[in-house]
Amino acid sequence: MTEDELKRFGLKLFQPRQGYRYSLDALLLARFCPELRGGGTIADLGAGCGIVGLVLVRINPAASVLAVENNPGMAALIERNIRDNDLGDRAVVCAEDVINLRRCYPASSFDLVVSNPPFRTAASGRISPRAGRDSARHETTAGLADFIAAAKYLVKPSGRICFIQHPSRLAESLSLASGLKLTTLRLRMIHSNPESPATMFMAELAKGRRSAPVVESPLFVRNMCGEYTVEVRR
C-alpha cells in the first residue's frame, strides 16, 4: 500500500502500490459534479479506494456518501480510508455489485449518483498483468448499461447522475441514457492537450426533465509545453 495526500481536500488515502490506483479522472469527475446545497446524499458506484465520494463530502460539507464497491479488498480499503480521515459519520461502504442494488436500497434515495465505471468492455483492450487493475478498467459482472440503470434507480427525480467514460463509448452512453428516459444535461470532453483528440468525456444526466444538452468548452489537461493548465492545477 501507499498513502497519498490530497492536501486541498484534507485527505490521506491508502491505495494499492501495484493494483488499481486512482488518477486525475477521479478528481475531474468530482469537480464536474454540481454542488449539493444544504447537504444531500451521494452514491458512488464502483468506488475503488473511495476517492470520488470522499472528495465530494469535502466539497459538500453537510453531505453523506455511500461507496459501492464489489471487490472485497477494495471495500475494506474504503473502510480504512473513511476511518483514517474521521469521516465515519458521513460515509459508509456497501460491498455489493451494482446489479444487486435494487435489493439493498429503495428507489429514488440519493441526490447525486456518481460513477467512474470501467472504460473497456470485457473483450477489448490490453489485459493488465497487475492484480486488481484489470477489473477496474474492464467490465466484469456489470456493464455500462448496468451502471446507468442502477444510477437511474437510485437517484431522486430532482437529483443528478454524473459519470466519466472513454469517448469510444459516447454514442453508447447517450443511447443507453435515452432508452432509460434520462436526459443528458451537460457534456464535457477532456483532451490531453489542445491538439489531441478527446481521451475522456464527462456527462451529467437527470430523470424527469426535458432539455437539450449543453456541450461545455473542452477541458485541456496540459498545454503544448506539457504543463498542467490553470484549470487543472486549480
Features:
single chain, alpha/beta, two-stranded antiparallel ribbon, globular
Structure overview:
By secondary structure, this protein is α/β, with parallel strands linked by helices. The protein is 26% helix and 29% strand. The chain has seven helices and eleven strands. The chain has helices at residues 24-32, 51-59, 72-84, 133-137, 144-154, 170-179, 230-233, and strands at 2-6, 11-15, 40-45, 63-68, 91-94, 110-115, 155-165, 182-191, 198-207, 214-215, 219-220. The strands form two sheets. Strands 3, 4, 5, 6, 7, 8, 9, 10 and 11 form a nine-stranded mixed β-sheet that branches. A two-stranded antiparallel sheet has the order 1-2. A hairpin with a 4-residue loop joins strand 1 (2-6) and strand 2. Helix 1 (24-32) runs parallel beside helix 2. It is globular, with a radius of gyration of 17 Å. 39% of the residues are buried.
Tell me the series of helices and strands, N- to C-terminal: EEHEHEHEEHHEHEEEEH
- Helix content range of the residues, please? 25-40%
The secondary-structure class comes to alpha/beta
Radius of gyration: 17 Å
* Quaternary structure of the protein: single chain
Largest sheet: 9 strands, mixed
Write down the overall mean pLDDT. 92
Inertia-based shape: globular
Q: How far do the termini sit from each other?
A: 27 Å
- Stretches where pLDDT is under 50 for at least 5 consecutive residues are 133-139
What fraction of the residues are assigned to beta strands by DSSP? 25-35%
Count of beta strands = 11
